[in-house]
Amino acid sequence: xxxxxxxxxxxxxxxxxxxxxxxxxxxxxxxxxxxxxxxxxxxxxxxxxxxxxxxxxxxxxxxxxxxxxxxxxxxxxxxxxxxxxxxxxxxxxxxxxxxxxxxxxxxxxxxxxxxxxxxxxxxxxxxxxxxxxxxxxxxxxxxxxxxxxxxxxxxxxxxxxxxxxxxxxxxxxxxxxxxxxxxxxxxxxxxxxxxxxxxxxxxxxxxxxxxxxxxxxxxxxxxxxxxxxxxxxxxxxxxxxxxxxxxxxxxxxxxxxxxxxxxxxxxxxxxxxxxxxxxxxxxxxxxxxxxxxxxxxxxxxxxxxxxxxxxxxx
Amino acid sequence: xxxxxxxxxxxxxxxxxxxxxxxxxxxxxxxxxxxxxxxxxxxxxxxxxxxxxxxxxxxxxxxxxxxxxxxxxxxxxxxxxxxxxxxxxxxxxxxxxxxxxxxxxxxxxxxxxxxxxxxxxxxxxxxxxxxxxxxxxxxxxxxxxxxxxxxxxxxxxxxxxxxxxxxxxxxxxxxxxxxxxxxxxxxxxxxxxxxxxxxxxxxxxxxxxxxxxxxxxxxxxxxxxxxxxxxxxxxxxxxxxxxxxxxxxxxxxxxxxxxxxxxxxxxxxxxxxxxxxxxxxxxx
Lengths: 314, 284
What we know:
A: D-Maltodextrin-Binding Protein, domain 2, 11 helices, elongated, B: MetI-like fold
């Protein structure tokens, strides 16, 4: 009797194995959950990829949170998420926590975001800015001293300059201040700040003597209400566009957007599949949501490095 | 101008000032609702309610957020209602004049004024991490329950206070115990008031974003929660997410979702008013 049970259970186990292998073989229908969290700037790209991934692998549940880049890394470094969205590279402090918890990761660039410098369409005097001029306007020392347009260039009008920018908690503000002032999060305080970029669009479009900055995607949606100003990159004046951000000439006001992948997660085939799918589709989907794709070869390169990352961590 | 005329004039002036003040709220609400309706009403259809979120504004819907909000609302009711009402009854009927009650009273009033994000931080540490519930519907509901408990307790006490002493006296005179008096006299008499308070507190909970974001509610979930341990999103997070997108279509989506959220709160307030009226009539 015992023998029969033994044989039966063996047969059952083998049978189960067989069917599992078969499943893997055909069209590899995967399931499982993939947890993503992090930057709200990167969110639209990841959301778009997750949406398309649903068509390919309907049983894989992808969830995305928006705790911000820092909040995302906090969860990522505790091993609570598989993938982290980030609008800046990981910081040393965060790397240390990852190491403490034995978490290895791979950094992947998925798209570019350009920062646009804008004025009112009735502003006829500004044709370009240099980074020095922007610094002179935005640095902390400018508060209360640089108040008029003609303080920047004498030929500009003797009128008050009204500044608009994203709120100090946003990654966009961090990035702008780092690129222009030289220190992340340091700027004058007397400007109109709003977390809602639509408010900035309205502010600048209704104020002849205004000057502001925000993500390029908001300019693309409001071209008729705003004038885009080119920024001198050291050799020439460049306006942000698909081309200039992609080829790196719109510098320093463009930045890469990242996703970070946890090494233990790549043991699950659904995560590997998802990241490969991400790198394949990110270029096209980034354009859909208002960002700028990387050059094609960059995606190919990263697919290769992801492949070896997966192989190293099996 | 003699004194009588002066007083009449003052009377009239105050009346108009009063009308003006009353109208501010009404006019603002009308403008606000009108603006939202113009922006969003065309976007609402069955697909909008049953579709999943999408990168294309015209394909996105609120299904998962709406389901998440309903789950949160149901669980929060189940948790906050019995606890809050029991605490209210205790404070009003049992612990009326001792020192502990005084201390509790001050603390409850203070808790009602604590910013909601602080509750989120508490929920993250206690429910998500220590109790290991994860960013689940249950953790979110527990956090929101804490948030609305003070409101439920205070309104329960107010409702119980409004029950005339004569009814209690009559009940005791007939030999009823304290519990019998509470269960058969006080609770039925104050039920309308208690329910009103609870429903208004829940209407507040349904609009909360900050504590749920801190607890870990998600912005993109392609499935509705199936159990209290599932991850979730809620309507206010979905609205906030859409508002911060550059494309005009998402703004329209946000307006449409706001209409639905407003609809939910209006219906809840309506139910509160209905219960209040029904109970009051019965009791008289």
